């Protein structure tokens, strides 16, 4: 496998949930801002933004939504936002047609923009010796996040990120073989997935998650069953919240 320093940093990614009590310098922040700003974007429309949350009360409220206290502990906490508000306003000011400014295409394009931006920032942060963790858990109650961050119409929260200098050294979490996720020309299906992932299951039960002091984690196949048979009720409202934010999702209920 051909590698370089950038690739080695990416391959060594680990979620960090404990950071040193050290602020990021203005120079480091400026670097991350520019990385975010230079991220690829659908048809050049730059439909993603970041809310940098420094207010302690807002942090506490977000931590309550996510149920993860280390939202409060990260030196930096950012929320990546799908953002069509700017361009919608540009059309309004130009007295142009707004018929297609809020359709499902705009939602998905801006959602993708925000996700790509987040990963770009993650890669850059780790290359600078920082550690990050994603907070998909902000979507436990998207409506509440909209309220906390005072997001205008035509925007939607995508994912949170904690950033700082690591104060822990987690194990590298095992991943399934890439042959099970990367296919050529057509999607490859298997007769028995428990059999396919038997070796991976064995690797997973040797992995220690620092959040769990009781020992190694469950097999991947057992985790999949546990997580896919449990529904998070508030997350079933995501499309409704998107509609409340002004996106036209057609006949989707």
What descriptors fit this protein?
oxidoreductase activity, about 40% helix, 2 domains, alpha+beta, NADH Oxidase, four-stranded antiparallel β-sheet, 10 helices, about 250 residues
Structural summary, described in words:
- By secondary structure, this protein is α+β, with helices and mostly antiparallel strands.
- It has two domains: 5-170, NADH Oxidase (3-Layer(aba) Sandwich); 171-246, no CATH class.
- It has helices spanning 5-11, 26-37, 56-66, 85-93, 104-127, 142-149, 193-196, 198-204, 220-228, 238-244, and strands spanning 48-52, 76-83, 131-135, 155-164.
- The protein has a four-stranded antiparallel beta sheet with strand order 1-2-4-3, with helices on both faces.
- Keywords: Flavoprotein, FMN, NADP, Oxidoreductase.
- One of its GO terms (molecular function) is oxidoreductase activity.
